[in-house]
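Posting this for the archive.
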Amino acid sequence: MSVPQVRLQGVDKVFMAGEPPAPLHACGPIDLELRRGEFFAVVGPSGCGKSTLLELIAGLTSPTNGAIEFPFETSAVRAALRSPTLKSPVTTTGSAGNARASMR
């Protein structure tokens, strides 16, 4: 069996939301290993944490608890993941049927 390319151990994400602020459990705890060549899909209803999970794996947000590891991460991959271009906020304009996204 191959070594995992991505490993999540006990990962969860909690946001503070509302007025007064209260914890909003977005996803987790998640234990997951992804290996080279595996097919991975995230499905579920709106608001269940799909996008949050992908943002955690991409490094766009930090987990509240747990660890995310990239056992075979090279310096080139590390540099790409830390690139300011990947962390730029995305803004959208237009109506739902005619939206445009731009990076800042």
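The radius of gyration is 16 Å. The longest helix spans residues 50-58.
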